[in-house]
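Before drawing any conclusions, I looked closely at one protein, both as residues and as discrete backbone shape codes, quoted below without any editing:
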Amino acid sequence: MTEAARRTLRTALQTVVALLPLLADGGAAADVPALAGVVAVAAAVSRVMALPEVDRLLPHWLRKEAGP
């Protein structure tokens, strides 16, 4: 698994964990598709942000650090 894929999955998992209280609060199954959409968007943004082209567009203080 590539590092970019690993980071994308980690972001998706973090988003799911962050949204769990919303599901536990009401327990409404009607909200599940909307929450799945939020997770998908978070994963997509994470994947795009991992691209070197996007990294070069970011301010220097927000860029990934160069590897050793």
